[in-house]
Write a structure and sequence with these properties.
The structure holds two protein chains of two kinds. Chain A is an all-alpha fold. In chain A, about 65% of the residues lie in helices and about 0% in strands. Chain A has ten helices and no strands. Chain B starts with a helix and ends in a 6-residue tail after the last helix. The chains are: A mainly alpha, B mainly alpha.
Chain lengths: ~180, ~140
């Protein structure tokens, strides 16, 4: 039981993520989380204004079920399958984040300084979340996929577009973390 | 019933991503600062396992539930869309510390402010759809 309650090592987690992809392919579907955002646009009636959002979103219901399951899975993992082990971050990471004004680094899953009540009720904090969300939604659809579709599925099947996209993900991520985050927090 | 299996896959996915700490903003920050192998280990071992699965199913002609040989749909051709779209997503991924899977999973762990991010992401997707024809692909 202790093995389950403690954080799982990368060499267990990685293959289990590949298993999710394998099972979805076996079901005749693909592992593509960001496409749910387009489905939700269609559900909200975006097809009336923009042809890109086809009104036949019911065909994508299976993927919305994956999303619903993922929310339940997060709940189960957090409240039934975890102990209070802090995240085993690099000491340097913790110190760096302390200097940026983050306290209790690694004691919760995400920092209160970004996702806590005080943060999201301040204009600065709210803008951070909105801009982040816009970038994710716009970028994934422009690139035609996210980490699941391009990094895991695309690279596993040796697709060049996915390699280009993943290199793009990392360029963007490196710019944000190294050049922008130090100025916004 | 048709959808139950997808719900179960989602539950499993959510559990794995929380237990691996891949849903943590801190882990994503650490990855982009090259201060830990953890996330690289997860991504690389997932890809290696995925390659093995796809190669084996190709050699053995393993069929999916619909009776068709397992296959991965081909991505569309292009270059600019993957570079620019990729960079834009990467900026958001590092800022929020979550990609589209973890955004939902985190709601289950009690990070309700992720709902704001998801609504903004839906709007971002809508904006892409609206200006798609004006963008280089």
């Amino acid at each position: 039981m202790e093995y389950i309650l403690n954080p799982w090592p990368w060499y267990i987690s990685g293959p289990l993520i590949a298993l999710v992809m394998a099972v979805l392919l076996y079901f005749g579907k693909t592992f593509a989380m960001s496409s749910n955002l387009a489905t939700m646009c269609s559900m909200a009636g975006a097809g009336k204004f923009v042809d890109f959002f086809k009104p036949d979103w019911k065909e994508k219901k299976w993927n919305l079920m994956v999303v619903l399951g993922a929310i339940f899975g997060g709940f189960i993992a957090k409240y039934f399958l975890s102990n209070e082990t802090p995240i085993d971050l690099n000491k340097k990471t913790i110190l760096e984040l302390n200097t940026l004004g983050f306290n209790d680094v690694g004691k919760t899953i995400v920092p209160d300084e970004i996702f806590g009540f005080d943060a999201i009720t301040s204009p600065h904090g709210l803008i951070v979340l909105i801009i982040g969300g816009l970038l994710i939604g716009f970028g994934t659809r422009y690139a035609g996929g996210c980490t699941s579709g391009h990094a895991i599925t695309g690279l596993s099947s040796f697709q060049k577009p996915s390699l280009i996209a993943v290199i793009g993900f990392f360029i963007g991520g490196l710019i944000m973390t190294n050049l922008i985050i130090p100025y916004i927090f | 019933m048709k959808y139950l299996k997808f719900l179960l896959v989602g539950i499993f996915f959510g559990i794995v991503l929380v237990k691996s700490e891949a849903v943590s903003w801190y882990r994503i920050y650490e990855m982009f600062r090259f201060q830990s192998f953890h996330m690289y280990g997860i991504i690389c071992s997932a890809i290696i396992t995925g390659v093995l699965f796809l190669q084996i199913s190709k050699k053995r002609h393993i069929k999916n539930l619909l009776g068709i040989e397992i296959f991965v749909p081909k991505k569309e051709d292009g270059f600019i869309r993957f570079v620019i779209g990729g960079i834009i997503f990467g900026l958001g991924w590092a800022l929020i510390g979550a990609c589209p899977g973890p955004m939902y999973i985190l709601i289950g762990t009690g990070v309700y402010s992720m709902i704001i991010v998801i609504l903004a992401a839906i709007l971002g997707t809508f904006i892409y759809g609206a200006i798609k024809n004006k963008l280089p692909h």
